[in-house]
Inverse folding.
């Protein structure tokens, strides 16, 4: 009988077989992982409570609102004004035609006598120009065609106007008045019509079209600056030699702005946020210089434009330019146009006389029907009602 006293690991070579117990111990066992138990989450930990939800909704609304307004108040692409050092007028025929017209006598009631020759007869006579405090009217239409629903705002604005109606200096009783409506068209650039324009009795300018720096082409006097709050010039230089600032009202806030500018009481920050473009806080004119355009001017002008529309559309408003022409017909015996006409056949042409943007940008606007307006203006010129100095119509 042989007794095994000791077995040393050193006695085994690399190829020797392990004992069953050792082999079992050396064999790797498959690892079994326990499934991780995720504790249930209370829905109150996931969803916002009512106060938090209201707060974040308000922040989202303000963010969207600012995303819309910032491009209007802080435009990224500002077009620089162009003031070329040209020496010679680009079209002597324009100057000669204008000089010939001014050399002749003023002809009383010329416009009114020729309105009957329009191919499309319209009622463009005896339309009130400015709103008068002493003549309250039952407004049946909303802005800009009337003041229905904003009568209280109108009353406050009129109370701040010392002379709300047509000033005596613009009334044509006993005198013949010549007027020129100066548009913003690029056709004025290089025209050298400035000295001729300054000779008219009434000079109507539109929106923020500048005078300062462009006197050679557009003149230096302004009898009426016709605009709405967002279109008012920001530079105080544009109000020099200006007699009347006439406001077209599109909303109740426009009347509040008129009151604010006259009384020197600034609008609140919240009120300013509702303008689609930044408005001026101060206009260096006396309270007597401010007028509110009668909405019947807008209404009648719009009705005229509708008669010339090729495709009948709703909610198409007349431009300030067309409105200015109809306004001039109420005050003036003879009316001339300068800087009117959109030449859509030449998209590369200059749109405005004071900046570099081109004619094709007009294709993107949908508020006005410039084609219908051009037909209306052509009809006025053909009937002899108005004279087109620059030949753009």
């Amino acid at each position: 009988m042989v007794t095994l006293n000791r077995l040393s690991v050193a006695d085994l070579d690399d190829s020797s077989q392990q004992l069953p117990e050792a082999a079992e111990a050396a064999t790797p066992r498959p690892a079994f992982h326990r499934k991780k138990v995720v504790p249930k989450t209370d829905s109150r930990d996931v969803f916002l409570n009512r106060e938090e939800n209201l707060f974040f909704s308000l922040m989202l609304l303000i963010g969207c609102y600012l995303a819309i307004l910032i491009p209007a108040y802080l435009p990224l692409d500002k077009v620089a004004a162009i003031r070329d050092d040209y020496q010679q007028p680009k079209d002597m025929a324009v100057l000669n035609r204008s000089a010939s017209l001014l050399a002749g006598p003023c002809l009383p009631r010329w416009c009114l006598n020729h309105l009957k020759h329009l191919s499309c007869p319209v009622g463009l006579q005896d339309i009130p120009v400015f709103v008068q405090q002493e003549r309250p009217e039952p407004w049946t239409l909303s802005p800009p065609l009337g003041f229905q629903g904003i009568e209280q705002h109108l009353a406050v604005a009129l109370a701040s106007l010392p002379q709300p109606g047509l000033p005596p200096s613009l009334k044509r009783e006993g005198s013949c008045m010549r007027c020129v409506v100066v548009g913003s068209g690029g056709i004025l650039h290089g025209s050298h019509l400035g000295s001729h324009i300054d000779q008219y009795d009434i000079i109507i300018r539109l929106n923020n079209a500048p005078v300062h720096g462009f006197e050679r082409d557009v003149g230096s006097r302004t009898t009426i600056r016709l605009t709405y709050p967002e279109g008012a010039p920001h530079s105080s230089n544009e109000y020099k030699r200006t007699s009347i600032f006439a406001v077209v009202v599109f909303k109740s806030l426009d009347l509040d702005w008129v009151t604010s500018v006259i009384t020197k009481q600034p609008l609140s920050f919240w009120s300013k946020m509702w303008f689609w473009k930044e408005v001026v806080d101060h206009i260096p004119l006396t309270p007597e210089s401010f007028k509110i355009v009668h909405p019947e001017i807008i209404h009648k002008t719009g009705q005229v434009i509708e008669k010339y529309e090729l495709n009948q559309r709703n909610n198409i408003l007349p431009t300030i330019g067309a409105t200015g022409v109809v306004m001039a017909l109420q005050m003036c015996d003879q009316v001339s146009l300068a800087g009117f006409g959109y030449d859509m056949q030449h998209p590369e042409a200059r749109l405005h006389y004071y900046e570099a943007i081109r004619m094709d940008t007009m294709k993107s606007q949908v508020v006005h029907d410039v084609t219908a307006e051009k037909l209306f203006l052509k009809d006025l010129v053909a009937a002899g009602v108005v004279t087109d100095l620059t030949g753009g119509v």
Observations:
- The domain at 92-388 is CATH 3.90.1480.20 (sialyltransferase cstii, chain A).
- Residues 56 and 348 are 47 Å apart (CA to CA).
